[in-house]
Amino acid sequence: MTNSLMQELIICACFSDGYFILIQMLNITTSLPLVINKIYFWYSFCFLIFKTSTMFLMSSGICEESKKPLDVIRSIPTQGWYSETERMFNQLKDDKNAFSGMDFFFVNRKLLFGLCGSLVTYELVLLQFD
After folding, report:
1. Angstrom distance (rounded) from CA 117 to CA 120
2. What are the tens digits of pLDDT across the range 48-99?
3. TM segments (predicted)?
4. Which end of the chain has the smaller Cβ count within 10 Å, N or C?
């Protein structure tokens, strides 16, 4: 499948996972009556975090792997470059080789860490108001 076929799927998956994580984080402070409810809540929350981070890390691997040929091209002295080598170098350096969510965002590790920072900030604000 190409990126154009998967854009709707990527944006739906990212937004639904983000929404459910926020809902779960909102419910952290509520007290649960039974031990089994607490176990289920923490299991589902940890599973959701694991699933989302795994999805982002596996998808961002495409962006990371596309940068590896740049190291090989950089090891070649510029005197030995042909026009095709220079064109490939510029294309690998400048193009975004990553999945995108309908061109709103590109799935890479920077996005994952930005989302984690935002979620931690959101949780700290919620804990202050509780």
Report:
1. 5
2. 889 988 888 888 888 888 888 888 888 888 787 788 888 888 888 877 777 7
3. 9-28, 40-58, 111-129
4. N
